[in-house]
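Dear colleague,

As promised, here are the two records you asked about, laid out in our usual form so they can be pasted straight into your sheet.

NAME FIELD: protein one
SEQUENCE, THEN STRUCTURE:
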Amino acid sequence: MLIKPHKKLNVWKKSINLITEIYKITKSFPRYEQFGITAQMRKSSLSVASNIAEGAARQTKKEFIQFLHMAQGSLSELDTQLEVANNLRYLNKKDINELSSFLTEIDKMITGLIKNLKKP
């Protein structure tokens, strides 16, 4: 069986873990937020892993890098949504700290991958 290239990437694996955590945490959000911040946070987290996967499947490094930048954009969206959820008191201090660390770690991994891909 052929293993897709993205499945070999630690950053993709880490982003799958992020999605899982976001889904678990947003389960406790108010029901009236189901189509609001809950949906947005889930979409943003899914977008991170999806862009990494799509980029890894592209033909050129330049295309891959473009998708990695989009993944970083989705991380920034998620960071903003975490701030809003925190302001609304949907998250406790422990969750916000853990998720913020998670985002920072993934962002650093993506930055490292971009730098590596830019090497001649």
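NAME FIELD: protein two
SEQUENCE, THEN STRUCTURE:
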Amino acid sequence: MQWSIKVDEVYKWFYSAKQRVEAIAGTTFVVADGSFVALIGPSGCGKSTILNCVAGLISPNRGMVSVRGQRVDGPTPGLGYMTQRDALLPWRRVIDNVALPLQFRGVGRPEREERARDWLIRVGLSDFQHLYPRELSGGMVKRVALARTMVCEPHTILMDEPFGNLDAQMRLQLQSELVALWEGARKSVLFVTHDIDEAIALSDEIVVLSPMPSRVVSVVPVPLARPRNAIRGRLDPEFGRLREHVYQLSGLLG
């Protein structure tokens, strides 16, 4: 089996008011090539710190992170990162926001606009390409951010609670759309969430982390069949069993 991401005995600490704060303590897990892995744990346990180490935005103090067999020592080509904040540029139209990563890579305007339009079609926003972010709903803004993440066709995608600030109905809808997009492309995904139901609905495996300093409590396979409907899948009896199991691992059931 090929690994897209390997986090190997990673330790990360920070200094605050002359005190060392240990965020990650010997965390180890892998993301198989083409798999969808959810990373869950209590607030403040270091989930985003792990993503930033994988992205090459920060470096571990000990241990190693590798992407496709290459040690991460800086921003990694071929990796997409959808953060909690959408960070769309308010003065740019939707199509120009989506095309921005291609512009940074020196892709000419005709090609980058064609590729941006293609992704806007895939996320259902082809009729909104000339609007500005302020003219969009919250769910539409998330779709633009997703299209911008995907437009460069990354082989590996990091997602940091991308749907966390949406209402429950919109969140379910976008989860379902994300599953459909992922099953069509089979990119490797590492997805941070606090929501156990979201983790089960989307992923092939769930990495359960302890409170800070984070360690891996367990890696839970999700045997729900694919192709998968992220909404209807919740009606599967196996979904309920998995939910109870992950709650127990997380210490939420005592």
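A couple of things worth noting about protein two: The chain is about 35% helix and 25% strand. The longest strand covers residues 3-16.

Best,
R.
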